């Protein structure tokens, strides 16, 4: 499949959603390490035109990654401790009765990783954006319910990220929205990413919900105490830029920015396991980092993502941390769940790309491959001692290994002098390769010990016969 074919199929995914009435408009973008490489839009954005990469939508909870980045910038400046109890910065939290007598007060780290013990709260929290700090203090004074002891379990909590917004304001003495904009958004040139429709410089789409066979427009809420959970407006161009910037932290030459590459990698690490019930139907193990979900793909490694859902809007961003390409998408309908199309779109790109585990071996692993290949062709115990760590001979004596190798080679008529017909690697110190044979092929697999000498700690040689 050519890239053109992949992009055409992706475009068709979003066109179909508008045709089926999922939302009145749908827009998408694909980015790689060089930037936005393609985008498309369908439906009516409200002025008779189809949306494009510069059309402004609410991105809702995709905002949480910006909130996390803002906090990490404050930590890097020595102004905030991730393990400080939230009550140190939000005094009103001191009135909250904790679920057990030995419960810790939720820390900043717990709030960032959705493990403060609060119940999941999307329907309630989505309507709280514009409340004042005094209103939030009143919520805390009224007491909170807990689903678990703080620090013990994942539960998606908007309240937790609202409290993080207050932490930013307490540390800086300025509103969260101003600090996030000045600290993260503007230095990266994300000038179309703003906290109110009035600030937007492009066409702002109105959110809707289905009612009586038509689309019912919904009012846009303004900034307030809950803006840190999902208050941002953005465009495909800007959100793709943000995703590319975060993904670049995993390259040898990460982009410069207001948050260090190390902290951006920290955001994209699995911190708290997400139960399968939270992501029903997912085929990937999922965790939460700092403001971002992290899925583990067996072929392509970590996939980083976040969805956004507000009354009238649906947003999603996701990318392969190792390969650096990703998808962003927006729609303007309540509960549209554009994440389904964005996930399918990235899967198309992953299917077309070479597996990330194909050629990740270190030079030391390649050297070990050459030495093992020579050893299989002409086994010598002294040479084996120079190739393997001592456990190899202890785990299975060389005599048995020699006999096993000879049997496996003979079983498929393997050509030990031939070049590998396929290679795979799940880690830089691991390599699996196949050698051709007259009646099948020979699989050879090695894994190095954590020693700079590059010695092999495991060797597996297996005949794979051709099906008759």
UniProtKB/TrEMBL annotation:
Domain of life the protein comes from: Bacteria
UniProt domain Beta-lactamase-related: residue ranges: 10-349
A family per Pfam: Beta-lactamase
Signal peptide residues on this chain, from the entry's feature table: none
SUPFAM superfamilies: beta-lactamase/transpeptidase-like
Record InterPro entries: AmpC-like, Beta-lactam-related, Beta-lactam/transpept-like
PANTHER family in alphabetical order: BETA-LACTAMASE-RELATED DOMAIN-CONTAINING PROTEIN, D-ALANYL-D-ALANINE-CARBOXYPEPTIDASE/ENDOPEPTIDASE AMPH
Name used for this protein in its record: CubicO group peptidase (Beta-lactamase class C family)
């Amino acid at each position: 499949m050519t890239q053109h074919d992949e992009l055409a199929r992706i475009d068709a995914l979003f066109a179909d959603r508008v045709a089926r009435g999922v939302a009145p408009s749908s827009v998408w973008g694909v980015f790689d390490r060089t930037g936005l490489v393609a985008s498309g839009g369908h439906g009516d954005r409200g002025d008779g035109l189809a949306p494009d990469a510069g059309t402004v939508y609410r991105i809702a909870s995709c905002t949480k990654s910006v909130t996390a980045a803002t906090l990490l910038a404050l930590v890097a400046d020595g102004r905030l401790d991730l393990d400080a109890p939230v009550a140190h910065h939000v005094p009103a939290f001191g009135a909250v009765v904790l679920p057990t007598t030995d419960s810790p007060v939720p820390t900043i780290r717990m709030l960032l990783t959705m493990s403060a013990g609060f119940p999941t709260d999307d329907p309630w929290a989505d309507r709280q954006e514009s409340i004042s700090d005094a209103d939030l203090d009143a919520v805390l004074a009224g007491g909170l319910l807990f689903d678990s002891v703080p620090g013990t379990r994942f539960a998606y909590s908007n309240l937790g990220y609202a409290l993080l917004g207050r932490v930013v304001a307490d540390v800086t003495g300025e509103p969260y929205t101003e600090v996030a904009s000045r600290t993260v958004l503007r230095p990266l040139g994300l000038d179309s990413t703003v906290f109110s429709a009035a600030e937007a410089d492009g066409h702002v789409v109105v959110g809707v919900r289905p009612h009586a066979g038509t689309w019912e427009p919904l009012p846009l809420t303004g900034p307030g105490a809950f803006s840190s959970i999902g208050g941002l407006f953005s465009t495909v161009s800007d959100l793709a830029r943000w995703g590319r910037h975060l993904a670049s932290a995993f390259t040898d030459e990460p982009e410069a920015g207001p948050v260090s590459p190390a902290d951006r990698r920290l955001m994209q690490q699995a911190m708290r396991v997400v139960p399968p019930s939270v992501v029903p139907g997912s085929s990937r193990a999922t965790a939460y980092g700092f403001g971002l979900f992290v899925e583990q793909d067996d072929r392509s490694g970590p996939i980083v993502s976040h969805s956004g859902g507000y009354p009238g809007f649906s947003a999603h961003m996701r990318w392969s941390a190792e390969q650096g390409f990703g998808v962003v998408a927006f729609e303007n309908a309540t509960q549209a769940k554009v994440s389904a199309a964005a996930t399918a779109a990235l899967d198309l790109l992953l299917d077309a790309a070479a597996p990330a585990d194909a050629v990740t071996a270190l030079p030391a692993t390649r050297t070990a491959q050459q030495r093992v290949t020579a050893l299989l062709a002409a086994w010598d115990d002294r040479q084996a001692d120079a190739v393997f760590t001592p456990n190899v001979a202890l785990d299975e004596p060389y005599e048995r290994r020699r006999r096993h190798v000879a049997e496996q080679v003979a079983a498929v008529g393997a050509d030990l002098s031939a070049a590998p017909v396929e290679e795979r690697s799940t880690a830089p110190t691991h390599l699996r390769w196949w050698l051709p044979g007259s009646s099948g092929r020979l699989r050879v697999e090695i894994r190095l010990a954590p020693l700079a000498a590059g010695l092999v700690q495991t060797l597996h040689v297996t005949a794979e016969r051709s099906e008759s």
